[in-house]
Write a structure and sequence with these properties.
It is a single chain. The chain has about 400 residues and is of the alpha/beta class. It is built from 15 helices and five strands. The protein has helices spanning about 20-35, 60-65, 65-85, 135-155, 170-175, 180, 190-200, 220-230, 235-250, 255-270, 275-290, 295-325, 330-345, 345-350, 360-385, and strands at about 40-45, 90-95, 115-120, 160-165, 205-210. It has a five-stranded parallel β-sheet, with helices on one face. The chain is globular.
Length: about 400
């Protein structure tokens, strides 16, 4: 591209160069019109990094724009060109990582008509630190951040929509935490508190990034409540949970509800030997129920999945216990290898009955387990240094 300037110490093109800007936005428009000309919705995301390294050439530095300013200037140009060529959809931008700070100077073209602000507070870790409404430092930070965005949009006389992008049950993000790898972040109570908060803030829609997305292990309870809450943020969650167990597990509903409730509580508590033993006892309770259930094959499959999940949770808690309490890395790694073996030996059951896909199983049994094995390795190396 004759006369164009690449980024200097940055990840993006030098958008102070008009030819570079035109090349980039023209190609984006051509891609949309070639691949999805009738799409209702498209969005443009900034780099998937915590801090976007901008071009630092003299012209770019002189303009003194933050990453979100640059993102919206590019977004505006693409939006104008799409509308000029008759594209009728909504074109969104994301408030996320490097672009989570509101712009300092950029204005939205036509007050944001046919636009969407996709608000994605990923560092909150899907309520790992409690609901958005609590007093934790991270919750306060993002409430202030959201307030700043609301102020910006109000000054723009914003005519577009706003959508939440959360990370509930995302194992790529939450698999490093014991309760997260068991699909227990957020709690159902926290999920409701946050959905109600977002609704009260005026958001128009809600989306969730939750790889592995196809997983309903041990049962569809998390997803079922998520969808129920999308329709009614004031849902009686306790009553809905009871209704789920009654209808999904039939005659075993009362036992399964108690087991699940106890597992949730124990997984969120600090690790202890007593907690691990209680989880192991709950596993025996589910096995006993399975033996008593008779020949109802569908129910046996459902309780069988719960049995595997409780065993999985007990091993996850055992691994955490050896990281945070005993600091015996060999025992912790043994627990992790037992997790991998449990999932691998039962993959035909889990995949064949649609509790999980092969790709999902790979995340849980490989990526997540490898991360926790790494924790035990790091602990061993630390002890080796201290004992030299």
């Amino acid at each position: 591209m004759k006369g164009a300037v690449a980024a200097i110490n940055g990840q993006t093109l030098c958008f102070s160069n008009h030819e570079a800007m035109k090349w980039f936005t023209d190609n984006a428009v051509n891609w949309v019109l070639s691949n999805c000309p009738n799409a209702d919705y498209m969005s443009m995301w900034s780099a998937d990094k915590w801090r976007t390294a901008l071009c630092r050439c003299e012209k770019c530095r002189t303009r003194d724009l933050n990453a979100t300013d640059w993102c919206l200037l590019v977004h505006n140009d693409i939006w104008r060109k799409l509308k000029k060529r008759g594209w009728k959809g909504i074109f969104g931008w994301i408030a996320y990582h490097g672009s989570e700070e509101p712009p300092q100077k950029a204005e939205l073209v036509e007050n944001g008509r046919d636009m969407d602000m996709l608000y994605a507070p990923r560092p909150r870790k899907a309520s790992k630190y409690g609901p958005f409404t609590n007093d934790h430092t991270i919750s306060k930070f993002y409430r202030e951040n959201l307030s700043a965005w609301n102020n910006y949009l109000e000054k723009q006389n914003y005519r577009g929509i706003r959508t939440v992008l959360e990370y509930y049950y995302d194992l790529l993000l939450l698999g490093r935490y014991t309760e997260g790898r068991a699909w227990l972040i957020p709690t159902h109570q926290n999920m409701q508190a946050e959905m109600r908060f977002y609704f009260e803030q005026g958001f128009d829609g809600f989306s969730n990034c939750d790889p592995p997305t196809s997983c309903v292990f041990p049962d569809p309870l998390n997803k079922w409540l998520y969808y129920r809450l999308l329709w009614d943020v004031n849902l009686d969650v306790a009553a809905a949970r009871h209704d789920f167990f009654t209808h999904y597990y039939g005659p075993a509903g009362e036992v399964m509800e108690k087991v699940r409730t106890d597992v949730e509580r124990l997984m969120h508590e600090p690790p202890s030997l007593a907690g691990v033993e209680q989880l192991q006892g709950l596993s025996v309770s589910v096995e006993t129920t399975l033996e008593q259930i008779g020949n109802d094959e569908l129910l046996r499959k459902r309780i069988g999945a719960m049995s595997l999940w409780v065993k999985y949770c007990s091993l996850c808690k055992e691994s955490q216990y050896h990281v945070e309490t005993t600091e015996v890395s060999d025992l912790g790694q043994a627990a992790e290898m037992a997790i991998r073996q449990l999932l691998t030996e039962n993959k035909e059951f889990l995949i064949g009955n649609n509790f999980i896909t092969q790709d999902d199983l790979d995340i849980v049994a490989t990526n997540v387990v490898d991360y926790h094995i790494g924790l035990h390795d790091a602990m061993r190396r630390l002890w080796d240094k201290l004992t030299i």
